[in-house]
UniProtKB/TrEMBL annotation:
Pfam families: ETF. This is Electron transfer flavoprotein subunit beta. It comes from Pelotomaculum schinkii. The keyword Electron transport applies. Coiled coil: none annotated. InterPro entries: ET-Flavoprotein_bsu_CS, ETF_a/b_N, ETF_b, ETF_beta_N, Rossmann-like_a/b/a_fold.
Amino acid sequence: MRIAVLMKQTFDTAAIISLDASGQIERQGVNLIINPYDEFAVEEALRLKEKHGGEVTVISAGAPETQDAMLQALAMGADKAILVTDDNMAGSDEYAAALVLSKVLGGLEFDLLLAGWRAVDDGSAQVAVRVAELLGLPQVNVVTRLTIEDAKAVATRDIEGGSEVVEVPLPALITAQKGLNEPRYPTMRGIMQAKKKPFQKLSLSELGLDAAQIAPKVKAISYFLPAPRAACKLVPGEAPEAARELCRILRETAKII
C-alpha cells in the first residue's frame, strides 16, 4: 500500500509567541515541531503500513528548516521524504501551498493521502482539502477512526453533537483529528536510520511552476497578541459580606449586573 502524508512544520504549541518590530511573528529562538495533527496522520500511515505492507512518503512545502520535522517523521518509520523549498515561496498562502503539493503528488502513485485536519499555527484547515480538490480525490475530514478494506476507506469522523461513519473509494484524502491514535516516539535506531533514507528536495522550477503562479491570493497584513488578563481580585470576609461586596463590584466596577 502506497501512502502519502502531507505535513507542515509549526511553532511548538507550548512556546511563548512574540511579535517583531514589523508586527510579524518572531521566529528566532522559537522551537519548531511537526504540526500535531499531521503527526497523527504520520502515525496512522505507519500503522496501516505495518498492517497492509507498502511504503510511506512524507511531503511538505516550506523553508529549508522544515527538513528537521521531516527527519522526525522518517525516524518514526516513514520511508521517503519530499520537500519543496524555494525563496519564491516566502509569504505564500494556502492556495499556493495546495498548488505546489498537488504538483508533487501528481508525479507520484499512491493509494491513500493522509494529512492533519488543520495546522495549529494558522488554523485555516484549507491546504489538504484544496489538494484533494485539485487532484479530484474524495475526502473525509476530522477522522477519529480509520480502516482500509477492499480498496475502500471506512472512516469515523467528528460532526457536531456526534460522529458519522463514511465509506469512500481509494485513492482518497483522510484528514486526522485528535483521538485517531497516539503517535510513537522515534527510537535511537530510527533516528540514526532517518539520515540514510531517501530525502528529495525540489524547487518550483522542477515542478514546472514560477513565482507568478503561486502569488498569494490572501496576504496577512499584521498580527496582534491577546490583551493580558487582569489580575484576579479576592473578596475577603464572611460569606454574606463577601457576597454583598462581590455584587457591588459586578454592578459598579464591572457593570455587568
